[in-house]
Structure formats: structure tokens, C-alpha cells
Amino acid sequence: MADTQQVDPKAERKAAKLAHQISAFAKAHGGAEGQVAYIGERGARIVLVGEDGGWGDLVAPTYAIAEQAVQKSGITVHESFDGEFAAKVKTGTYEWKRMAGIQLGG
């Protein structure tokens, strides 16, 4: 019996677009690593950390599309956002002020 998996063209296009964005981020930051996290009905969050410490994220409509996108992009994917991976993120003045503002009610 032949494998007859249905391919959703819209999902394929979304995964390709996300993969392109991930690749562009990696190119701009000297390489990148990522982690995919399920965020409920909204889909999945792809967290990216560049080799230079820059970071960003993307949201995919489903976990499967997110996984497909990171696979197409060729980046290293972590199972979790653990301490070693998180330590690669470099935060700037903006983030520190924002975090302090949240703590101080701002």
C-alpha cells in the first residue's frame, strides 16, 4: 500500500515563509539556534537566538508547521529553553529597564 499523505499547499507555503525568515535571521546574526514551544490555540512559538546573542521569535499557526519550518531552515533546535541555551541571549539596556519597570509597576 502506498503512503498517501495529504499535503496542504497553504501549510507548505507558511512553513517555507517561516523557514525563509529563520534563515534571514541566522544570516544576520552569524548563525542561529532555536526552540519550538506549543502556545495553545495560537499555534507554536519559534524562539531564535543568534550566535551574536541577538534574539527574536516567530509564531506559526501550528506546531507541525513550526517544526517543518525549523527543519527546512537547517538551524539547531533545542528541546527546551534551558539555562545553557538561555545564557546565549544578550540583553541590552532596553530589556533591563523594561524588566525593572515591570517590577516597579511601570
Overview of the molecule:
The chain has 106 residues and is α+β, with helices and mostly antiparallel strands. It is 43% helix and 22% strand. It contains 4 helices and 4 strands, in the order αβββαβαα. It has helices spanning 9-28, 63-73, 83-86, 93-103, and strands at 32-38, 44-50, 55-60, 76-78. The chain has a 4-stranded mixed β-sheet with strand order 3-2-1-4, covered by helices on one side. A hairpin with a 4-residue loop joins strand 2 (44-50) and strand 3 (55-60). Helix 1 (9-28) crosses helix 2. It is globular and about 45 Å long. It starts with 8 loop residues before the first helix and ends with a helix. The mean pLDDT is 88.
Offer a quick outline of the entry.
43% of the residues lie in helices and 22% in strands. It is of the alpha+beta class.
Write the layout of secondary structure elements.
Blueprint: H1 9-28, E1 32-38, E2 44-50, E3 55-60, H2 63-73, E4 76-78, H3 83-86, H4 93-103
Parallel strand pairs: 1-4
Antiparallel strand pairs: 1-2, 2-3
Helix pairs in contact: 1-2
The largest sheet, given as strand count, sense and whether it forms a barrel, is: 4 strands, mixed
Overall residue-averaged pLDDT value = 88
Number of E strands: 4
Strand order of the largest sheet: 3-2-1-4
Q: What level of helicity do the residues show?
A: 40-55%
| Amino- and carboxy-terminal Cα gap | 62 Å
The percentage of residues in β strands lies in 15-25%
Name the structural class: alpha+beta
Number of helices: 4
Give the overall form. Answer: globular
- Cα gyration radius (Å): 16 Å
Element string (H = helix, E = strand): HEEEHEHH
Question: Which residues sit in consecutive blocks of at least 5 with pLDDT less than 50?
Answer: none
